[in-house]
Amino acid sequence: MDVIDVIVKIITWPPLWQLVVLGLVAPLGVVVGILWFERKTAARVQRRFGPLHVSPRIGGAIQLIADLMRYAFQEIIIPKTVDKGVFLIAPLTALVLSIVPVVAVPFTSVSHYWPIPMEYSVLISLALSTISAIFIVLAGWASNNKFSIIGGMREAYMITAYELMIILAILSVSAMTTSYNFVDVVLAQTGGKWFIILNPLAFLAAFISVLMATSGFPFEIPESENEVVAGPFTEYSGLLYGVNMGAAYIKRFVYSIFITLAFLGGWLPYQPGDGFISGYLIPSLVIIVKATILMAVFSFLRAVYGRYRLDQALDFAWKLLFPLALMGFGLGLLEAYIGLIG
Amino acid sequence: MSSSEVIEKIKEALGDIIESIEEGKGVVHVFVPVDKIVEAARKLKELGFDHIKDVTAIDYPKENVIKIIYHASSYGNVELSKYIVGLGYSIPRDTERVPSLYSVWTTADFQEREVYEAFGIVFEGHPDLRPLLLSPPVAELKPLRKDFVVKEETIFRK
Amino acid sequence: MSGFVSTRGQVGFNDLKIPGAWSRKIGKDLYEVFIGPQHPGSGHMRIIIRIDGDVIVEADPDMGYVHRTMEKLGEGREWIKGIPLYERMAIHDACNVTLPYVRAVEQLLGIEAPLRAKYLRVLLCEINRIAAYLYGFGIFGVFVGHSTMYMWPFGDREVWIELADWLTGARLTHSYPVFGGVRRDVPADFTNQLRKAIRYMRKRLEEYRKIYVDNPVIRARLEDVGVIPKNLAIELGITGPNLRASGVLYDVRYNDPYEVYDELDFEIPVFQEGDALARVWQRVEEIKQSLRILEQVADWLDKHPREPILHDRFWKTAPPLHKKIFETEGRAKLVPLYALLKVPKGKAYAKAETARGEITYYVESDGGQKPYRVRIVSASARNAIVFKYILPGHRVMDLPTIYGSIDYFPPEADR
Questions:
Q1: Any idea of the CA torsion for A237, A243, A244, A250, to the nearest 10 degrees?
Q2: Å between B15 CA and nearest CA of chain C
Q3: Nearest CB to C64: which of B59, B120, B134?
């Protein structure tokens, strides 16, 4: 066995593959594309050019890489008044914790390529995805800045608004398939019976609550620039600020993968075969492409909507989204009862 | 309603409080003694002059007098809204305290703070008298009085 | 009171005996937040708010960060130099802001501008008004997080600024009205381009409505926020579109017409609700009326031949050389016409409707070459009082909404 084989083996070891390649590298590539798309579409709507001067021939597509380099080499300023340990650890922990749920979802139906046993993957991945928000609140608290604390408190309020809805909306597919296993959920959608068609209510609830969870417009409340500067991240600079932003995008990417698996048919219509490429690589790519399209839809709303007020967002969540998610859940149960699924 | 009718109305309402009436272009100044100012303002407000457009102070060092004028007008009464009535009083330049008209016209809140910081005249009865635009050290110099001369730099050699 | 000593070495806070120069206690369980002056959500001003949870209990607008002592500087300059000085208050609204000063001095001089000059003044005033409203829309768009509404009005404002540039030779700070007339006549083909701009703007207003004013999220943010009831609006003496959105019919152009506004056919829109949404609608409607005025002015300018745009009085004092250059080349320098102008003793009070409301000038002359006293109260200075009396009771997130809907402009307020 030569060295390359060993390296390939290590990289393609499912936990590592999903954590590093699908959880870190793929979002980075997607983010570069999505941010470019977001800025270009917004610019088109607003009659501007958007990114242009870095690589003018391809329309400024690598602008974000230039921005990332700037963040990477910027001085990291740690104010005297902050709680240093927590201030440093919080964004890094948030980043790691927002990647971790990727390990708990299947990217293929071949059990050989699952990082963990998938019996309860819906529950485990949802549970893991909810932890990272706490560290954003913590980052705001450690910053010892009034705007950071207000931003952190807003994030805390928003957690109460979206967390239950997101779990309810995604669990409605478990009700439909009577299984906590994402693989079963995906396989039940074979033959074009994607759950977005069968249960649009739950999909809508999941979509909106992901917008809330990741500070997308019109729910860009914790970081809203005009009231709280940059919210919990006001005191962060340089790479640490980049880590914060990266964590937010990865979080959105992970939620997009959840929605893809639960409602958009996962790796379907592709049928995973044997071997690494057809059994693991291609299904992962299908999922990533679907998630990317979903993220593009998320970012398109930026040009169209302003932002809600905090109390209006909470109102919206509990008075409209909660009933919607419940109705989605009920609809799922009904469809399972009359035997529409499987 | 013509401007002379407005003046007649004011004369009627204020009666013998009035010390003198001066007419300018587009404005009538009615001067009253400083201790009757609140009473006069109340009567003017009853006439329909429901807000003030500005509080103006003018320094006359030669006559040793500062005039403080409240330019009042009306929003509620369309006929009166054309006219500006300046209700004012003269005080010696070293006067420190004068009554505030905040209780009559809420608009005077910020305007009196402006006069206070620029002329160093304290309005008694104002709920929150602080400098508005200037920082306190500058306000202490009473910059809008005529004896504060602005030193402007021109081209100069050391 | 801490041991602060002024860096200039004159007076320290410790030595001050004047009221208001010391620190104040805030209530128990309150959280004090300084919004501004470097805060992205405010202009060059600070609003000190004290919040209880998410609700503002006390607001203290702290103005003066761009105070340029215009009243004092005005006393030390010749009459004509006041025009470029005072228009620094609101550079994109320069004609509206300086017009009452010019008119006050004209009243003291006892002269009146020729009819064509009056129409030209109205022309630039309305162009300025539209540009200033669009600026306000853009800022408001940022405040509620609507980036498209930030970019669109700023782009469309360029149309009006280009027109003003073409008319006066300056994009901003036009110094266009001078005592007894205006500086320039319209260029050839100006009115056709103006009509094109009017058509374009009408189309764009409809698009603004679709994406912004009727946007459900924006409506949710604006409706019933920052309500100023009619009686409170009168009591606080606020002015301009904010006053009219609260149901008070008061517009200087209507109540006390100046220039040729009494000959033009336009309406004063009035809204009864008094909330932030009504203030936005108010501005949309007023742009429509301004477009109407501009159409009529364009028609008038087309129909009437070119005639002098400056009062004869100034030509009498002009040096012969200047008269000769003017006759051959059609242009003249203003300086000899105005440099030694003496204004008769007296006092005058003039007002005008700027984009943000009424501006008033009290001008007093002692018969010399410089004003004795100029008292300026601009629209934003009078509207600033809203923050103190309206903000308490609202949520922190309503602050940018109210700030933007008032269309507060710090340089104008600080003078």
A1: 160
A2: 25
A3: B134
Arithmetic mean of pLDDT, A277-285: 81
Looking at the predicted structure, is the pLDDT value of residue C12 above 50?
A: no
- What is the tens place of the pLDDT at every residue in A2-40? 888 888 877 777 777 777 777 778 878 887 888 888 888
- Give me the domains of chain C, ranges plus CATH numbers: 13-62 (no CATH), 70-414 (1.10.645.10)
Q: Are C315 and C204 in contact (CB under 8 A)?
A: no
| Cβ-defined contact of A309 to C220 (cutoff 8 Å) | yes
Q: Which residues pair with B89 in a beta bridge?
A: B68
Q: Which segments of chain B have a pLDDT < 50? A: none
Kindly report, residue by residue over A218-273, the tens digit of the pLDDT: 777 777 777 777 778 888 888 888 888 888 888 888 898 889 888 888 887 878 77
Whole-number Å distance between alpha carbons of C47 and A190: 59
Chain C positions contacting chain A at CB under 8 Å are: 31, 33-35, 39-41, 54, 141-152, 155, 211, 215, 217-218, 220-221, 395-400
Q: Which residue has the higher pLDDT, C202 or A275?
A: C202
Extents of the domains making up chain A: 78-337
- Distance between CA C93 and CA C82 in Å, rounded? 16
User: When comparing pLDDT for C290 and C333, which is higher?
Assistant: C290
- pLDDT of C9 over the 50 cut: no
pLDDT, residue C7, reads: 40
Report the pLDDT value the prediction gives residue C198, as an integer from 0 to 100: 92
CATH 3.30.460.80 fits B3-139, yes or no: yes
Nearest to A229 among C39, C395, C400 (CB): C39
Burial of C9 per CB tally in 10 Å (0-12, 13-18, 19+): exposed
Number of A–C residue contacts, CB under 8 Å: 81
pLDDT number for residue C16 = 55
CA B47 to CA B7: how far, in whole Å? 12
- C213-260 confidence digits (pLDDT tens): 888 888 888 888 888 888 888 888 888 899 999 888 888 888 888 888
Identify all chain C residues contacting A224, using CB atoms and an 8 Å cutoff. 145, 397
What distance in Å separates residue B35's CA from the closest CA in chain C? 22
SS3 assignment, position C35: strand
Q: How far is C199 from chain A (nearest CA, A)?
A: 19
Which pLDDT does position C2 carry in this prediction?
35
Q: Give the ranges where C69-227 is alpha helix by DSSP (H).
A: 70-75, 82-86, 94-109, 115-143, 147-168, 190-208, 216-222
Residue of C16, C362, C385 best to disrupt the B interface, most CBs of B under 10 A: C362
Give Cβ neighbours of residue A338 (< 8 Å, ≥ 6 apart): none
Q: How far apart are CA B28 and CA C400, in angstroms?
A: 40
Structure tokens at A158: 């928003």
* B and C make contact (3+ CB pairs below 8 Å): yes
Q: Write down the mean pLDDT value for chain C.
A: 84
Res. C3 pLDDT band, cuts 50 70 90: very low
Q: What subunits touch chain A, counting only 3 or more CB pairs under 8 A?
A: C
Residues of A in contact with C400 (CB under 8 A): 226-227
Q: Specify the DSSP element, H or E, that contains B82.
A: none
Give the DSSP letter string of A86-134.
HHHHHHHHHHHHHHGGGGGS-SSS-GGG-SS--TTHHHHHHHHHTTHHH
Q: What is the ipTM of this complex?
A: 0.87
Residue of B nearest to C351 (CA): B26
Q: Do chains A and B touch (3 or more CB pairs under 8 A)?
A: no
Residues of C in contact with B86 (CB under 8 A): 349
**B113-116 — which CB contacts under 8 Å span 24+ positions?**
B114/B55, B115/B55, B115/B56, B115/B57, B115/B68
Interface check for A313 against chain C (CB to CB < 8 A): the answer is no
Which of C108, C255, C375 is facing B54, going by the closest CB pair?
C375
